Structures are given as C-alpha cells and as structure tokens.
Amino acid sequence: GAGVSQSPSNKVTEKGKDVELRCDPISGHTALYWYRQSLGQGLEFLIYFQGNSAPDKSGLPSDRFSAERTGGSVSTLTIQRTQQEDSAVYLCASSPNRLPNTEAFFGQGTRLTVV
Amino acid sequence: AQTVTQSQPEMSVQEAETVTLSCTYDTSESDYYLFWYKQPPSRQMILVIRQEAYKQQNATENRFSVNFQKAAKSFSLKISDSQLGDAAMYFCAYSSNYGGSQGNLIFGKGTKLSVKP
C-alpha cells in the first residue's frame, strides 16, 4: 500500500479481554514506532522496532502490553486483560530508517474503547 | 528528561490571515530535532516542518515557517495565508539525535487551530 495501514480502525472491548492491534508499515521501512494518544496524557511513545528487534521498549506502560514485528514488516501490539485506562488511540508510524534524520509516516490509528 | 510545552490549547484565525502557534521545550542536549505535526480529524499525523538544532536558519515549507530561538528554547510555527484546510490539531515535538532515545518523539499536548471563513 501507499501508506501505513492500521487495523482495526475502531475496537470496542470488554474490560479484562485481550486485544491485538495491527500495523502494516510502508514497504521497505526498517523503523516502526507505536504511540498512544489518550485524552489526559497526550501522545506517548510506547515502543520502537528496528527490523524485527525492539531496542527500545521503555514506553510500554505495564507488562500487560507487548509488541512484536515479523519479517521486518507487520507489527502487532497486544494488550492483555484490558483496563478502562487503556482506552486511547494507538498510532503506528514507520520510517526508512531510525528517526530523526528522516521522515516518519503515521497511520490513522486504532481507537480502542474498553467498556 | 525532555519536555515540550504548548501553552495555547486553542487558537483561531481568519482565512487568509497569519497565525503563530507557540512551543517551548526543555532539554540539556545539544543535538536534537524539533517538529511540527498536523493532525486532522482523520487522526493521521502529518509532518509540517522539521528543524535541526544545529542549523541556525529557520526552516520554511511554503506557507509554514518556524521561529527557532535555541537559547530561549522556543520553536513557534507561523502559518501565513491561512486556509480552511489548515484547521486541525497541531503538535510540537522533540527528538534527540543520539543515545537510546534517539528518534523517540516527545510531543506537546497540542493546539487546536480553527480557521474562520
């Protein structure tokens, strides 16, 4: 595809359930980032991938959050035992190589609502 | 730790007029980048302009320009000849250019810009 694709666009889940959010980066982009955008906290960095490795996971808020990337392409962010405070928009971005010397391209995000 | 502050939660401008959005940041680093991103209702963040801290010349991109005051740690965005399509949330962001946090964007809380016809 021409841009970064995220799915689903919207997700409503019950508290305590697990959810998976998917990110398809631009083909050939080695760097991939996940951010969380919530009303009270603004945009927060979650994790950075270079290829399939995650050199920086420092932004993951708890051990209920995990992410993987396979084939240097698709990434999945998994939230286990969701809580209401997990409700937010989860944005994915990719770039040809590690920022900030290049441009990051963002997807349209997944809006997660935990009820 | 680095921080980014946008002190204007909302701004309004008349179509064809000029508006300036403010941003200040705090860092002890010398090698970094600053960014302005636009987020329309579609939620997709779009890069508006980027400034490297080592460059003294202010970045410009068509109707968008910045006033980068390194000593004051200020990075404002000027939008000239405002258009209806400029209405969006604007985020100022910081990124270190070295070390473990290189490339991780630190965002301000945003300024919602409205454009009046």
Keyphrases for this structure?
heterodimer; A: 115 residues; mainly beta; 4-stranded antiparallel beta sheet; B: 117 residues
Task: Draw up the topology in text.
The complex is a heterodimer of chains A (115) and B (117).
Chain A: E1 5-7, E2 10-13, E3 19-24, E4 31-38, E5 42-50, E6 53-56, E7 65-69, E8 75-79, E9 88-95, E10 105-106, E11 110-114
Parallel strand pairs in A: 2-11
Antiparallel strand pairs in A: 1-3, 3-8, 4-5, 4-9, 5-6, 7-8, 9-10, 9-11
Chain B: E1 3-5, E2 10-14, E3 19-21, E4 24-26, E5 32-39, E6 46-52, E7 60-61, E8 64-69, E9 74-79, E10 88-96, E11 106-107, E12 111-116
Quick recap:
Chain A is built from no helices and 11 strands. Chain A is mainly beta.
Q: Could you explain how this protein is built, in words?
A:
Helix content of chain A is 0%, strand content 51%. Chain A has 115 residues and is mostly beta strands. In chain A, a hairpin with a 2-residue loop joins strand 5 (42-50) and strand 6 (53-56). Chain B is mainly beta and 117 residues long. In chain B, 0% of the residues lie in helices and 51% in strands. Chain B contains no helices and twelve strands.
Largest interface: A-B, 27 and 26 residues
Cα Rg of chain B: 14 Å
Count of alpha and pi helical runs of chain B: 0
Low-confidence stretches of chain B: none
Fraction in beta strands of chain B: over 45%
